[in-house]
Amino acid sequence: MSEAVDSLSLLRVTTSDGVELYPAFQVQGGKPMNELAKVLGVLRTGVNDPWMWTQWLNTPLTDEDGVERPTNAQRLREGQLGDVLLEAEHDAASWRS
């Protein structure tokens, strides 16, 4: 599993008491979510914090009119890689500043 974590193919978070967890949202049909490594690679340019990445992927989003839209994880599952990467780049840039 360490190789998958090192290559960002799989997301691992560590609790405050040292327990390592692999969030279930990232697995589809027994395999890591497609294209997850690309998104995590972009997010890592802003902050190297797997907990923040987990939150970014799973926080419900709303549009300008207050209408809820799919989470970034849902969008990635639906094949919207380009849109998710664009948001990841934007947010990573804001985290760096």
Instruction: Give the helix level as a range of percent.
Output: 40-55%
Q: Please report the distance between the alpha carbons of the first and last residues.
A: 32 Å
| Coarse shape | globular
Following the backbone from N to C, one meets helices and strands in this order, namely: HEEEEHHEEHH
Q: How many β-strand stretches?
A: 6
Our estimate of the beta-strand percent is: 5-15%
Mean pLDDT: 94
In DSSP terms, counting alpha (H) and pi (I) runs of 4 or more, how many helices?
5
Low-confidence runs of at least 5 consecutive residues: none
Q: Main β-sheet, in a few words?
A: 2 strands, antiparallel
* Number of domain modules: 1
* Radius of gyration based on Cα positions: 13 Å
Instruction: Give the neighbour order of strands across the main sheet.
Output: 1-2
Q: Would you tell me the structural class of the helices and strands? A: alpha+beta
Fold blueprint:
Elements: H1 2-6, E1 13-14, E2 20-21, E3 27-28, E4 31-32, H2 36-44, H3 50-58, E5 61-62, E6 68-69, H4 72-77, H5 81-96
Antiparallel strand pairs: 1-2, 3-4, 5-6
